Amino acid sequence: MINGSIVDLITPICKDGSPDYDVLETLVDWHVENGSAALLIGSATGQSTQFDIDERSELLKRAIWQSDGRIPIIADLSAGDPEQIFEFARTADEFGSSAMLLTLTGENYSSLAELIDYLRELSALVKLPLIARDDFANPGVLSPATLTKLTQIDGLLGFVNNSSLATSEHAVQVQDLPANFALYSGHDSDACQLCLSGYRGGISIVANIAPNLVQNMFTSALIGDRDNAESINNNLQPLAEGLLEDPNSIPVMWALVEMGCIPEGEEPPTLPQSSDYANLRRALRTAKIAI
Fold first, then answer.
1. Within a 10 A sphere around the Cβ of 54, how many other Cβ atoms?
2. Source organism's superkingdom (predicted)?
3. Which CATH number characterizes residue 34's domain?
4. Residue ranges of the alpha helices (H) in the chain?
5. How many domains does the chain have?
6. What is the pTM of this model?
């Protein structure tokens, strides 16, 4: 079971728009050194739609090779075509992914029974551990009442609560789920509180530039050290707000360049407004990240 910070890893991009595989390998090493719990490849801020299946396969292969077993690599299976999802799942299995993540939408499944059958078939196809991700704010997909049905699928080890709603109607009761089934947060904004309530970690964009801090926040929450977890989280929230105000990969890449983690490249990432530079620099200083 993966516990802690699952980094929604940003894919560096070359001038021609193709993935920068060399910089990706540098980032894998950096996250190993900073103690991230796992890396999710090809998912961050919708980047999966920017690349074709060959580029996504190469990204996954490079990340797995570079990790060399030092950190779990999770393959994002995002695709509009269910058959392409199966194809990429087979690729992930062949390359040696640690797990795979599938975002559930209401478009491809006419009923809960059909969805469960699909997940069973996918899990059985490659034998890789599967994590499902959903948005409770999207009606007709899933609800907490039906989540228990997913826990009965062999090979499904966890669920990412990607809801932005905080009402009791959408609350998942951790104690009602099997001990070997993990819940993960899908947003940096509520990750700390959910982990303090029993979640095992979360998928994080902020961890792209503050991997050690995000992992320490989760670790503190997992051991019940509320004061330290909330203290770290309070320092990280301005950074989360700054990065996700305009959700795309550019602010993250800009910050990584400022921190000296990746090279500027031929076309350095540029933020849309001059105020964004000041806001992000201020958020980095609040989180005590050197730039």
1. 8
2. Bacteria
3. 3.20.20.70
4. 21-33, 53-67, 82-95, 112-126, 144-150, 191-196, 211-222, 226-244, 250-258, 274-286
5. 1
6. 0.91
